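Cont'd.
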Amino acid sequence: MFDKSLDNKIEMSVVSRFLRYVQIDTTSDDEGTPNPTSPNQWDLANLLKAELNELGLTNVEIDEYCYVYATLPASPKIKTDAISFLAHLDTSPAVSGKEVKPLLRKDYQGEDLAYPSNDDLYLKPAECPNLLDYIGSNIITSSGDTLLGADDKAGIAEIMTALAILQEIPAITHPEIRICFTPDEEVGAGTAHIDLHKLGKIAYTIDGGELGELEDECFDAHSVKVTIKGRNVHPGKAKNIMINAGKIASEFVSLFPEHESPERTEGREGFYHIRNIQGNESEARVDIILRDFDKAINIQRIDFIHTLSEVLAMKYPGVEIKIEHSNSYRNMKAILDGHPEVIGRAESVFQQLDISPKRRPIRGGTDGATLSFLGVPTPNIFTGGFLYHSLREWIPVSSMVTAVKVIVGLANIWAD
Ligand SMILES: [Zn+2]
């Protein structure tokens, strides 16, 4: 499907798009109200709308919440169901995305990389051994004072380039393709206003990391808010009267198992994460998030929190402990296991392109989890980048080219 001259064409297209998109600041705002949380996301949405029109897609629109939708009509005689590709417009508020100055570093030779806008920053193979897999490649970094924004502008550039290739080469047949670029993914609101009617029957998010990532599993995620009400009086007259809510809160969190914390876990291990403790004698609050791949284990963790509160209520008569719990997102594997062809076909495309799949569970969430539970099975595919949400974020150009081919290959495989 792909000859060498096409490789060069893909590279030029995906790189120029990527460099253009990352220079638009689309940092989302975790304090802002969605739709979208930061006004600059409209700038990228508007640019993409113009480019999608230029590419000849139909139904190109930006809706009132800043979602970009577009349709690539099916090849003649192809009657299979529409599929979707998604990527997100925003970048993480964890690191500045203002005035990103991307650097294309040609023919990387394994050296430590310095940054023109940050004398103290280096990207070193000693700290990021993956660099050594890309010796001889062109890689892109920021100039050192911002993130790069490959998460997820690489995903957008790869989808846009794949659309250009499909338009240019009609011999690569495909079903109808419905594109969606979402705002506010990084602040957990990427699917808040998504219109499922505008998506295909199945979808892929292009929002993973290094080459080969193919993800059908994410955390099962809960949040728990504990409110402790005590009783305050003058400390000089407090004997047998004061109930110190702040002190009880600190005792409460000290009883969580240390080996089940984010800083002690990896791979498939789950955890309790204390996100916030605040309070005084009268009232204290503890915010906890729970993460695991196995929902049943999270339910046990919720039971444990209830048991702790009962024990403390017995130890400190008069204290009031209220526990509120909500499910943030679920492990999409439960849904994707029921649609094995969605991952299976992606694996076939990887095989055609000689990519060894990296099937790691996502230690976090993805828009695809929400979409999967809403009825659109949506695994996640690599963009090619590394060290997302940091100043050292980087992406090899060769992986972006391969991601474009994966998208084109997926479009083609769903024509049958
Ligand atoms: Zn992302």
